Amino acid sequence: MSEHGRRQRHRTVDRVAWILEAAARAPGGVTVAELARTVKAPASSVQDLVNGLVATGFLLEQHRRFRLGPAPHVLNLIAGRVVPRISQAELGELSRVAGTPVLLTVRVGLDAVYLARGGEDEIPRLVPLADRHMARPLLRTAAGRLLLAFTDEAERRGLLDELARHDPEAVTEFRSALPAIRASRISRSEGLADPEVSALAIPVTDGPVVTGALALIHERRGRSERLRLDRAAARLLAHIQEGRM
């Protein structure tokens, strides 16, 4: 792919990713037949992929069921701090300081994924999204927009080209908002993913690199919620800068 070209999906890579996610979401493991239904592929093809993933440690087999192996964790260790490291206790403290629920979020391809949450369950319908680490569209969440804004420029262009195929209006709006997001290091969502939710996101960093985002959420009732989130973000940023996490 050229620097400005669109990134193409690859069927085999997609199937491997779906297999790994299915195995990760099944505490008791999954069978080849179950995986074949998930990826909509012949069982023989899935068996070949599973055999390779077991051989390289990405899957473990027990009683003909497959679960996630240690290889993904080892790769994270080799790479260093790829995923933001904020403990549950720290997230609870951040939520207390902000006065709102807080969601720790990372970008996975074209999606934003919640890793963990802190604070009270003020919006119960969002709890399963966080606890099950469900994927959310990047351009429809405050955290996703922030993470996309701080993605490497060449990669961001490719991602936006891909996103434009499905949601051109959202891409146009994001491109217009991009300079302000990068300048302020704050991103907002006023009902983009849920018409009844306001959200604001600030970056989680490892040195100069943005590795994740903290999303602050509140029920959307009007301008007062925006001001409340602004104040919550200011408190949270001051708390983080003082190193009191």
From TrEMBL:
Sequence ranges assigned to domain IclR-ED in this UniProt record: 64-245
Keyword Transcription regulation assigned: yes
Gene3D superfamilies per UniProt: 3.30.450.40, Winged helix-like DNA-binding domain superfamily/Winged helix DNA-binding domain
Database matches in Pfam families: HTH_IclR, IclR_C
InterPro entries: GAF-like_dom_sf (IPR029016), HTH_MetabolicPath_Reg (IPR050707), Tscrpt_reg_IclR_C (IPR014757), Tscrpt_reg_IclR_N (IPR005471), WH-like_DNA-bd_sf (IPR036388), WH_DNA-bd_sf (IPR036390)
Domain HTH iclR-type intervals: 10-70
Alphabetical UniProt keywords: DNA-binding, Transcription, Transcription regulation
Cited PANTHER family: HELIX-TURN-HELIX TRANSCRIPTIONAL REGULATOR, ICLR FAMILY (PTHR30136), HTH-TYPE TRANSCRIPTIONAL REGULATOR RV1719 (PTHR30136:SF35)
Name of the protein this chain belongs to: Helix-turn-helix domain-containing protein
